[in-house]
Fold each of these.
Amino acid sequence: MTKLDQQKIRNFAIIAHIDHGKSTLADRLLEKTRTIEPRKMKKQVLDEMELERERGITIKLKAVRVTYKFSPSSKFRISDNKCKLENGKYVLNLIDTPGHVDFSYEVSRSLAACEGALLLVDASQGIQAQTVSNAYKAQDLGLKLIPVVNKVDLDYADPEEIAREMCEHFGFPENEVIFTSGKEGTGTREVLEAIISRIPAPSGDARAPLRALVFDSFYDEHQGVVANVRIVDGSVTNSEKEEQLHLMGSEQEFSPRAFGYFQPQMRPVESLQTGEVGYIATGLKDIKKVQVGDTVTNFKSETRNKKARGIEPLPGYKEPRSVVFAGLYPTRKGKFLELRDALGKLKLNDAALEYKPTSSLALGRGFEVGLLGLLHLDIVKERLEREYELDLIVTAPTVEYKVRTQEEEFTVKNASNLPDKYDEILEPWVVAEIITPYEYIGNVMKLIDEARGEFEKQKHIGEKRVKLVANIPLSEIVSQFYDTLKSASSGFASLEWAFAGFQPVDAGKLEILVNKEVIEPFSRIVISDKAYEIGRRIVKKLKEVLPRKQFSVPLQAAFKGRVIAREDLPAMRKDVTAKLYGGDQTRKDKLLKKQKKGKEKLAQIGSVSVPKDTFREILKD
Ligand code: GDP
Ligand code: MG
């Protein structure tokens, strides 16, 4: 096999705000380069997961290699070409990334493996919060950005205006902007030519010892943990299969099973050279040993001492940080081990998922999980239920609080762990950046205020929009802020945020009691000002949704141990056949059977049966 010419490799990511068309443009690139046979082509082909396809979102990043024969079109602008360009075949490694704010850490991983990125903006939407944050991440890493205005086929879009906005905001020269329609295929060739002519070839040292950056990993039944890597220096070749490779961070040695790249299926090759993006099948069983951000080196026995060889590990990435925490419990007892195995399997491919066993008086054994946000929680829950046939109760998601007593300071991620006595509770705050069209400024300001936020400053973006910066408690952001922001701005405002430390808060534990018994999964930490309102709402809702019993049942809300709201569930036996006078016995039987089946869906919480859907309803608040 001929060796790949390093000068003919380009590594790039596609970054954009969610729904601006990354995956669709990736489809066009795969098509144009004939990476996928036309008959096998389907929409958003890189979104393989069932959930991704159903919801039309990208959850996992994908790396795929395409080759393109470069012979410049008449439209090609040579002016911005810095390196000597030869016609011929180029290898392009494309990394498609997720766009939702929950998954922004995935983006930073892929960027570190690239020299450039397409910065895509939807011509009908303009620059949004993740456009800005991803662009800055890429610029910080020194990537060459290619501005692309996408969806130019839309009648109501104003591509020229959006192009001006991009130039003004990010400082692109006007003639660098490319106009595309992922839907119709416009501009695909120009994009490919820009990638080749504007993004520099990888600059690693081919003669240096191997350094490969792990930017993702997943578990494969046959090959063990497979690391997605970018070969920064040196190379790996088949002869090394006999030898040991070494992960510098986890200090783990392994004998590689195979090397290769994705197209998008795994394609084994003889070697991976400097500058290439591909995979190394490690044969390891434990994904924790193959952490994102780690460096793979080769580990020849005579040079065991890596310091002596002067190999520096590559700078790692930002570690994902859990933002929301919730309890996951199987509805049926005895499913704990199954849940544990399922979580273990999910974790193999989701480095950001954290979990540890916990138990609750009411719910039995389960897990406390830490996640990147509510969408992430929703996805994990749904995958567990679908792919592993589990039926789960999820407790009210919460952020992490700090609690101070005279003696100590500790963190609380679960309302039931909040002690009765303490001196102070602190809650996490974030700096939020919201981009919105001018006409919605009033609405957004009001939202910030309602979320206990503090407005800091604003900056114009183009002629029609503005960026607002505010400090807001994280608990407000993760609960409803995002959805409310969307509806308050007809979907136009977008949000990006970063941690900004802890602040004291006047808060305490809100508990819900059914028949005088605390229903633990409903417990949550709330601020004092809102305790009454939330408590009232929950008991009212419970009254609506709980099945009645032969006796009346008190429903109460207590804040810091004091009852603050009460409703009574009146006694009544619900006879579903009562309204069926007349004698159709089969129909009666059917109904009774249906009622019985309904009962099976109840979750037993202490002495009270609560329908599973009720849990979901209540926890949504
Ligand atoms: P991603 O979230 O950035 O990966 O965006 P997707 O590629 O999933 O696209 C989001 C939505 O926009 C989908 O409904 C696409 O069909 C649509 N879309 C993508 N590109 C275009 C385009 O060029 N024109 C039009 N009209 N729609 C597009
Ligand atoms: Mg996508």
Amino acid sequence: MTTTIIIGAFWGDEGKGKIISYIAYHEHPAIIARGGVGTNAGHTVVYQGKKYGLRMIPSGFTSEKSRLLIGAGVLVDPEIFLREVELTGCKDRIGVDFQAGIIEKEHKEKDQHDKHLSKKIGSTGTGCGPANEARARRTLRLAKEIPELTPYLTDVSKEINEAIAAGKNVLLEGTQGTMLSLFHGTYPYVTSKDVSASQICADVGIGPTKVDEVIAVFKAFMTRVGEGPMPGTLSEEEMKKKGWMEFGTVTGRARRAAPIDFEIARKAVRLNGATQIALTKLDIVFPEVANATKKEELSPAALEFIANIERETNIPVTLIGTGPDAEAIIDLREDKL
Ligand code: GTP
Ligand code: IMP
Ligand code: MG
């Protein structure tokens, strides 16, 4: 019985969607709850041969037996929420906290037209920044005021704490990445809230003493979309040569890429109290490991790459992504959920 938090170590898009959906599908936690900012997140989940680009619904929807929840700290865009509920067919098992904030049209317009947000920061234009601004002013409307959300309303904190007390497994999903944290990231080029594991606890309403494991998701290289620094950023030519080109799930913008920087990696482990690392896209850096499902199938160079991450961060790499397919993964965890 564990409460596990999954967070991104870098600037988001580490492949959390795939790691979360893999764990969810195989271990069926009683509750899968989403923390994080809001619809600025984009997670790609491949399930039963179909590719889902999700912005609201927990990536763990692939576990059909799990209760899905969205915490009070998460911003809800009702239109996107209702669309994704239909798309994923999770109507009967999803709940939204009464006190989740609501993204309105005016927030999206401001996010897209405000020069500072859209140009200087390179925001996603999804209205999250202006909605959190309104929340801080205490003028933002909450989920309990929106008739379309009535069937979904619940006390997320109470549900999760009761599940933990009953000895059930709980999986908490973070979004974005640690370096986008409003407090600890590359300010001002960050998102509108903290996004570390502690914030994910606050988002869903559990205390830090309830958490057993924090899995930090690392991609085998770092990427960043939007403005702001990233040490070791490669030129477009170098990125193409390495095959590290990526495009954003929400905005379609090209991402910048860089090799893993271990100062940043250690900072992410520290800020989140991470206990394990899930490493994705190892096959992009080492094509010979594509679709491996056992550590024995990895090449010496790939094994050394992993050993180096473990030496540098001092925590184990327990999940290794070796391809886009949901089952292209090496699972070295001793204790599953
Ligand atoms: P998060 O925001 O952290 O959830 O990541 P993301 O889902 O935004 O990342 P992105 O939109 O770039 O999608 C990741 C893509 O990479 C999806 O199509 C995944 O199926 C795929 N993917 C995930 N893990 C691996 C991996 O280990 N190897 C490869 N080749 N592809 C992967
Ligand atoms: P905002 O969160 O839309 O205000 O955007 C602020 C910054 O965070 C921009 O650089 C965005 O590109 C970045 N950002 C926000 N959410 C994500 C995410 O889920 N993945 C990657 N970058 C993100
Ligand atoms: Mg993403």
